[in-house]
C-alpha cells in the first residue's frame, strides 16, 4: 500500500478491482480519499487504517475502478453542439427524416431556422443514400412538405468527401441560391431538369465550405449567408451538454490541442466561473488558417497569447489554457492529407495532398511562437506533413530548445521510425486515435492502397520507441468504452476486419495507460491525475465489468456506473446516492 500524511479519509471505496496505472500497474482493492485527493490505495486491511468513525464507506460490490479517462483530442464543444442539434440517428427512409423535421417545426417559431446534424454519421454514412428506402437523398420538395416556412438546413459530415448537405426552398430562397451561384472549388449545387437547385449540395473540402455549425462556424462567406450565427447562449449550452455527456462516459480530463476558437473559450470560462465545469480542461488557443497568409494578424495573435498563455499554460487544475494550435495539412479521412508519395485524392486525381502553409512561412510562425515562450501543437495527419512539422521543430530547437516543453503533434496517422526517434529526442508528445481505423479504414484503403493503410496508426511502434503516445477520439465516437476496445481490436467498420499489422496490437494495460496517464501528460497534469496514486486527485470511473479481463467483444458493452472528479460524483447511477 502507498499512503501519504496522517490525515483521516472522508470516503472509502472498497470491494473493488482497482487498476491504478501506477509504475507497476498495481491492482488494488480499496481507495481512501480525503479532500478530493487519494490518501491511500491497496489492500482493504491496510487502507482502512486511514479511516475513522466519520469516514463514509461505499461497497462497490466487486466492480472495477480505473482512472478517469483522459481524451487527448476530444472536441467536447463540438460533441455538445451535436447533442443540442436535431439528429436523425441513421434513418431508414426519407419519411424518418421528415418526421424529425416535422417535430422541430412544431416546437419552433414561424420562420426560425432549423439546422440539423448530418443525415448519418461515419461509418454508416458510407452506405447512404442506398440505406434509405427510397434509394436517394432527400431534396427540397421532401423537406418543404413538412417545413414550408421554416428554413431547413441539414449539415454535411465534415470529414466525408463528398459530404452532402440539404436545404428546403425557404433556406434556398433566403440565401438567394441559384444554379449559377459562385461556389468554392470542390462544391457542387445539384440542379433539376429545369436548372433549379434540388436542395442537394456536395462539398469535398476540409474544412467544409458548406456550413457546419461548430465552434468555428461562420455563415458569412458561405453559400448560406442568411444562416444565423451561434449565440453565446447556444455555445454555453453546447459546452455544458458536452461536459455532461463526457461525465456519463467516464471522462474526467480533456486536452484540446487542436485549438478552441474564441466563442467556446468564453463558454468554458463561464462554466468555470459558475463552478459548473465538471471536466478538467486544458485547451490550446486556435491559430486560424487564414492567418498563415496574414502575417500582421498572426503576429498580433502570437503576442496576445504569449501575455497570458505561455509556458505550461495559465489557470488551475480545473481549467487551463496554453500555447497555440495549428493545422498543417488536411484530413486523411477524406484523402486530403499531405503524404510522401502521390495517391488518389477525393477529386479522383493523383496528388500529394493539402499543405495549408508553405514551409518558410510555417517555420517563421513556429520560431516566433518559441521565441515568445509559447508551446506549439500541430495537426499533421499524413507522412509528408509529419516529416515537415518535425523538421521545423528540430530547426527551431537548434536556436530555442523545446525539450521539456511538451510540444505535440496530433492525428499523425502515418509516422515513420525516424519520426518516432525525432519525437523521443525532442520530447514531442504525439496524440492519435484508433477510431480513425473504424470510421475511415475503407477510405485509407481506397486512397493510399492496402499496404500503406495497414501501417496506419501504429501504437505498438510508438510505445516500443519509448514515446508516450496518447489515445484520443477526435470526438467521434467520444465514448471511452468504444475507443478502448478499438485500441485493442483495430477494426475497419466497413469490412469488419482488423486493419493493420497484428504486431501493432498493444496490451490492455498499455491501452489503459495511453488513455489515462499519457493523456494527462499532454496537459502537464500527470502529477495530479491520470493514475490512482496517493496525492493525486480522486478522478475515477467505476465500471460494470473489468475491461482488462472480459472477452474482447464485450468491452463496448461496459457501462460507466459512476464518475468521480476530485472525489465528487459528477455522474452516478446510484452507487453514491444510497
UniProtKB/TrEMBL annotation:
Query: One MF term in GO for this entry?
Result: hydrolase activity, acting on carbon-nitrogen (but not peptide) bonds
Report the InterPro entries cross-referenced here: Amidohydro_3, Metal-dep_hydrolase_composite, Metal_Hydrolase, YtcJ-like
Q: Does the keyword Aminoacyl-tRNA synthetase apply?
A: no
UniProt keyword terms in alphabetical order: Hydrolase
Looking at the record, the residues that make up the Amidohydrolase domain are 58-571
Key word Hydrolase present: yes
Q: Which Pfam families match?
A: Amidohydro_3
Give the source's domain of life in one word: Bacteria
According to the record, the segments passing through the membrane are none
* Cited PANTHER family: IMIDAZOLONEPROPIONASE, PROTEIN LONG AFTER FAR-RED 3
This protein's name: Amidohydrolase
Protein's organism:
Ramlibacter henchirensis
Amino acid at each position: 500500500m502507498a499512503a501519504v500524511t496522517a490525515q483521516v479519509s472522508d470516503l472509502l471505496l472498497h470491494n473493488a478491482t482497482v487498476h491504478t496505472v501506477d509504475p507497476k500497474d498495481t491492482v488494488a482493492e480499496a481507495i481512501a480519499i480525503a479532500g478530493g485527493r487519494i490518501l491511500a490505495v491497496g489492500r482493504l486491511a491496510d487502507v482502512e487504517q486511514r479511516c475513522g468513525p466519520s469516514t463514509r464507506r461505499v461497497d462497490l460490490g466487486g466492480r472495477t475502478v480505473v482512472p478517469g479517462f483522459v481524451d487527448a483530442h476530444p472536441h467536447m464543444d463540438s460533441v455538445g453542439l451535436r447533442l443540442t442539434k436535431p439528429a436523425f440517428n441513421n434513418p431508414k427512409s426519407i419519411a424518418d427524416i421528415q418526421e424529425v423535421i416535422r417535430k422541430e417545426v412544431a416546437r419552433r417559431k414561424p420562420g426560425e431556422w432549423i439546422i440539423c446534424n448530418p443525415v448519418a454519421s461515419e461509418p454508416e454514412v458510407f452506405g447512404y443514400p442506398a440505406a434509405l428506402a427510397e434509394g436517394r437523398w432527400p431534396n427540397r420538395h421532401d423537406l418543404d412538405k413538412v417545413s414550408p416556412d421554416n428554413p431547413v438546413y441539414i449539415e454535411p459530415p465534415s470529414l466525408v468527401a463528398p459530404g452532402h448537405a440539404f436545404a428546403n426552398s425557404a433556406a434556398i430562397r433566403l440565401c438567394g441560391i441559384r444554379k449559377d451561384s459562385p461556389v468554392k472549388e470542390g462544391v457542387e449545387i445539384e440542379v433539376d431538369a429545369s436548372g433549379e437547385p434540388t436542395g442537394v449540395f456536395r462539398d469535398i473540402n476540409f474544412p467544409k465550405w458548406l456550413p457546419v455549425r461548430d465552434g468555428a462556424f461562420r455563415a458569412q462567406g458561405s453559400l448560406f449567408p442568411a444562416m444565423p450565427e451561434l449565440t453565446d447562449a447556444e455555445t454555453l449550452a453546447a459546452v455544458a451538454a458536452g461536459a455532461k455527456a463526457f461525465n456519463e462516459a467516464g471522462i474526467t480530463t480533456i486536452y484540446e490541442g487542436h485549438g478552441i476558437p474564441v466563442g467556446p473559450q468564453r463558454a468554458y470560462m463561464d462554466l468555470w466561473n459558475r463552478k459548473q465545469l465538471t471536466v478538467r480542461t486544458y485547451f490550446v488557443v486556435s491559430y486560424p488558417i487564414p492567418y498563415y497568409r496574414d502575417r500582421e494578424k498572426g503576429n498580433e495573435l502570437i503576442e496576445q497569447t504569449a501575455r497570458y498563455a505561455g509556458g505550461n499554460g495559465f489557470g488551475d487544475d480545473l481549467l487551463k489554457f496554453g500555447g497555440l494550435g495549428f493545422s498543417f495539412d488536411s484530413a486523411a479521412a477524406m484523402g486530403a492529407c499531405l503524404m510522401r508519395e502521390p495517391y488518389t485524392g477525393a477529386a479522383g486525381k493523383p496528388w500529394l495532398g493539402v499543405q495549408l502553409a508553405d514551409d518558410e512561412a510555417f517555420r517563421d510562425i513556429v520560431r516566433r511562437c518559441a521565441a515568445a515562450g509559447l508551446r506549439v501543437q500541430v495537426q499533421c495527419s499524413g507522412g509528408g506533413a509529419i516529416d515537415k512539422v518535425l523538421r521545423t521543430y528540430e530547426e527551431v530547437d537548434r536556436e530555442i530548445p523545446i525539450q521539456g516543453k511538451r510540444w505535440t503533434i496530433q492525428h499523425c496517422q502515418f509516422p515513420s521510425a525516424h519520426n518516432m526517434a525525432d519525437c523521443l529526442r525532442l520530447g514531442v508528445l504525439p496524440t492519435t486515435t484508433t477510431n480513425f481505423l473504424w470510421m475511415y479504414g475503407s477510405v485509407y484503403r481506397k486512397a493510399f492502397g492496402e499496404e500503406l493503410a495497414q501501417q496506419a496508426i501504429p501504437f505498438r511502434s510508438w510505445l516500443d520507441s519509448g514515446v508516450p503516445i496518447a489515445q484520443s477520439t477526435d470526438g467521434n465516437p467520444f465514448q471511452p468504452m468504444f475507443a478502448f476496445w478499438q485500441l485493442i481490436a483495430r477494426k475497419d467498420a466497413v469490412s469488419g476486419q482488423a486493419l493493420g499489422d497484428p504486431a501493432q496490437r498493444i496490451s490492455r494495460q498499455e491501452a489503459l495507460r495511453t488513455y489515462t496517464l499519457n493523456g494527462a501528460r499532454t496537459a502537464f497534469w500527470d502529477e495530479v491525475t491520470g493514475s490512482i496514486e496517493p496525492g493525486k486527485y480522486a478522478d475515477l470511473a467505476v465500471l460494470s465489468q473489468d475491461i482488462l479481463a472480459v472477452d474482447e467483444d464485450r468491452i463496448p458493452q461496459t457501462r460507466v456506473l459512476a464518475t468521480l472528479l476530485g472525489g465528487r460524483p459528477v455522474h452516478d447511477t446510484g452507487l453514491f446516492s444510497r
